[in-house]
Amino acid sequence: MAHISDTHLGYRQYNLDERESDFYEVFNEAIDAILKEDVDIVIHSGDLFDSPLPPIKALKTFRDALKRISDKAKFISVLGDHDMPRRRGLYPHSLFDNVKVLGLGCLEHMDFNGLLIAGISNLRGRSIELLREEIKKFDKISSGYRKSIFIMHQAIDRYLPFEGAYEVREDELPRTASYYALGHIHSRILTKFGKGILAYAGSTEINSRSDIPSWRKDGKGFFLVDLDGDEPKVQKVDLNVRPQIDLELNVMDRGELSNALKVLNENLTSISKLSKKLPIIHLNIKCRDVERQSIMNKINDAIKGRILTSRISFVEETSLPSITAIKGGVDQRGLIGEILKKYGLSDEKFINLALELQDLLVNDEIDEAVNLVKKFFGVDAK
Question: Which of 3, 8, 44, 82 is catalytic?
Answer without folding.
Answer: 82
